[in-house]
Design brief:
The chain has 223 residues and is α+β, with helices and mostly antiparallel strands. The protein has six helices and ten strands. The two termini are 33 Å apart.
């Protein structure tokens, strides 16, 4: 997958309501949506020196992070993802996990992944061994996602960001999460080579500017 462009803006609740109405009137909803939105649960990885967190906070030009993710509480489809950023561009690689792989990864057992034939799983395994990557925190949030085929555009509204206060048992449905402080709602716009003027007009929000907000960083404050 090629690198994509990305805009990210912190928005208030009234902006969220206005954008929801504008985007919903023009664009199609993402296929994951149920009644307009869907729930995302992710388990993020970092090492004991907080490499991923520090690189994000320091604005390192080339950085990456690993996470395991599922949608709407559906444990039958769980994905390992690696998100890379370079000079403001982003790329996401993804591999679907079987249940055994999920359990091994969730408990941080690098050697239990030796038999996997998936390149992304083997990359995580290698970095668990060489860099000390381990499960660090759970991030939950609600997403409203809209798509526009020209330019392969995806516009998302993320809100109700929550964390599990250091608990990393993200396979436990009853794992309690709490609001991640005063985390704002987030508008994200991703596209390939060009951003159509229609989308530029739809996502205009007065008094906002490009943000480097990180859901992972916001939740790591609590564990």
């Amino acid at each position: 997958m090629e690198f994509r462009h990305e805009w990210k803006h912190e928005i208030c609740h009234s902006d969220l309501l206005a954008l929801r109405a504008r985007l919903g009137a023009v664009l199609e909803r993402d296929r994951h949506a149920v009644n307009g939105s869907y729930e995302i649960r992710s388990l993020y990885f970092d090492n004991l020196r907080d490499k991923a967190l520090r690189e994000k906070l320091d604005g390192v030009n080339g950085r990456e992070k690993f996470r395991v993710r599922y949608y709407n509480g559906d444990l039958s489809q769980i994905f390992l993802e690696k998100k890379s950023k370079y000079s403001g561009l982003c790329r996401k690689e993804q591999a679907r996990l079987n249940w055994e792989e999920v359990q091994v990864i969730a408990r941080g057992d690098a050697f239990g992944l030796e038999g996997s034939e998936k390149p992304l799983v083997q990359e995580l395994r290698f970095k668990m061994i060489t860099q000390g990557l381990r499960p660090r925190t759970i991030v939950d949030y609600t997403r409203e996602s809209f798509v526009y085929p020209p330019g392969n555009v995806r516009v998302t509204l993320d809100h109700h960001i929550r964390t599990a206060l250091g608990d990393t048992d993200f396979l436990e449905p009853d794992c309690v999460t709490v609001p991640a402080g005063d985390a704002p709602a987030i508008l994200e716009v991703k596209w390939d080579q060009f951003l159509p003027s229609l989308i530029r007009d739809l996502v205009q929000v007065p008094r906002t500017h490009t943000s480097a907000f990180s859901k992972y960083a916001a939740c790591r404050i609590y564990g």
